Amino acid sequence: MTERKRVVVGVAGGIAAYKACTVVRQLAEAGHSVRVVPTESALRFVGAATFEALSGQPVRTGVFEDVDQVPHVRIGQEADLVVVAPATADLLARAVSGRADDLLTATLLTARCPVVFAPAMHTEMWFHPATVQNVETLRRRGNVVLEPASGRLTGSDSGAGRLPEPEEITTLAQLLLDRPDALPFDLSGVKVLVTAGGTREPLDPVRFIGNRSSGKQGYAVARVAAQRGADVTLIAGNTAGLADPAGVNVVHIGSAHQLQDAVSKHAPDAHVLVMAAAVADFRPTHVATSKIKKSHDPNAASAPSIELTRTEDVLAGTVRARADGQLPNMRAIVGFAAETGDANGDVLFHARAKLQRKGCDLLVVNAVGEGKAFEVDNNDGWLLAADGNDVALEHGSKTLMSSRIVDAIAAFLGSRAE
User: Fold this and answer.
1) Region (Phosphopantothenate--cysteine ligase): which ranges (predicted)?
2) Which one of 211, 238, 366, 379 is the catalytic residue?
């Protein structure tokens, strides 16, 4: 059961205010006490009654309401987390200047908990020097300002400045409730290449050989790295319809060969490679051009034989390319291993052998089995380093685990810079 925390959801006056309803609902359903503090402009988009019904708490906008309870001080003081979604250009500017002319800005001044701003505005406003400077100032003060998504904006416009999807906002909010220091803006200028999801190796136009990977862990690593300031490219295989993380360049692929091509294309510019994809070890040697039919002849063989060929080892190939001087920018290579124990050794025995065999700098290890690693929201495991340092990754959400992994990457980069 998630520990019940007090979360304030601030809502500024933008068209994306309707998405705040889902943020409130998801946080409340997670078991948290949610108080909505909108601006007057926000209530022109979504009425107070909606927020009150979703949160179960009264909605106020001014500092002269319920004065006996001193809400302009108390709400911020008691909060475990403040999330402003959407955070308009105007709200960001008022937060930077320390305005306290309504209940939301007063709450921001009194809050001593993590504060998250989820920006939403037109592209021109997001990239305007004033907004850029305001974002930098808020981050420098210790606030978390999420990278916005790219996509359809108001009217026919499209570009950067779209509010991240509510599920992404609540996922990152829960991360900060679990780890208040999980999203420092410390990877600016670092280019990170992440692979995620399973590959599908075609057998005929209908069938394929695949695996159970959902892509959730790789997506979580990409999401956390991007929100810590990294320039992230995500190469995504089969991911069961996961939404693209905000602020991430996503390249969709299908097979192991396509994944290898995509890594080869993007790796030369990357400083970090995180190989979280579950790449098929084998593919059919021959791919039928038409659907393989089931024979109705009772004397025919029960099933056709499938000859398999090894796929390319993308991780090992990248390690070799770096060693050969072909990837001069690459400073860290992180592998993933989904392992099971057997008669020859336990999970860690096989993982250490894989780390040595692959030659990567860090290896994230998961024990697989029923309800473990694949197609689940929570995970645990170990983080093995080439220098022999092993760290246990405690059980928790895949986003929480990703924050630990990105911590290790940041520390590794820092040690190499010394």
Assistant:
1) 192-418
2) 211
